[in-house]
Each structure stands twice: as C-alpha cells, then as structure tokens.
C-alpha cells in the first residue's frame, strides 16, 4: 500500500461535499457524506461522467450524467448495472488526509 497525502487538515471538508483533486497527476474524488470521508475514482465506468458533479444518496455515489449509483463502501454498482468503481482507503492523520493505493490498483489505474 502506498499512501499519499491529499489534503491538509484545514482543507478537510467539514460539511457534505464532493471534491475532485489531483493525486500524482491523476483525478480522485474526495467525498464527505454522513460524517464519513471516502475516496473514489473520479470517472464513471458507464460512460466516463465526472463524479465531481454528482451527489450522494443513501450511502451511494450518484453519477450526474445518467444517474448510475455506486455503493460508497464496496464500490458496487446498483442492482442491474453490473459494474463497480474503485474505493480507496482513507486515513486521517495529524497533518491531514491520506489515500492509500494498492500497487495493483495503482498500476491498473495510473499505469
Ligand atoms: S456516465 Fe455515469 S451514469 Fe452514465
């Protein structure tokens, strides 16, 4: 697992939001909802929509283009979609928010 600091403590959202940021030149969505922080891939596997314009509903991330929904804990698409998104582990440390990438995810996504 390789950890990257993505936000300073002062930048960590205190309210529900979806923020697209660059990590090592690539885009990741940082999502705050229901008091938790998630990190996901920024593009929708359906047709490439940007989750940065989406919203959260009942623990799911909803794409703004065709409203496909993805479970924020597992990454699984809603019933009938048959797809998934990558959810990256997050860790709040004293100096900010970190995201972890497994080598295989890293290679597949950014390789
Ligand atoms: S591009 Fe996201 S639902 Fe179609």
TrEMBL record:
Residues 4-99 form the Rieske domain. This is (2Fe-2S)-binding protein. Keywords: 2Fe-2S, Iron, Iron-sulfur, Metal-binding. Its cofactor is [2Fe-2S] cluster. The keyword Iron applies. It holds the Pfam family Rieske. Belongs to the bacterial ring-hydroxylating dioxygenase ferredoxin component family. GO terms for molecular function: 2 iron, 2 sulfur cluster binding; metal ion binding. Gene3D superfamilies: Rieske [2Fe-2S] iron-sulphur domain. Coiled coil: none annotated. It comes from Pedobacter yonginense. It comes from the Bacteria. InterPro entries: Rieske_2Fe-2S, Rieske_2Fe-2S_sf.
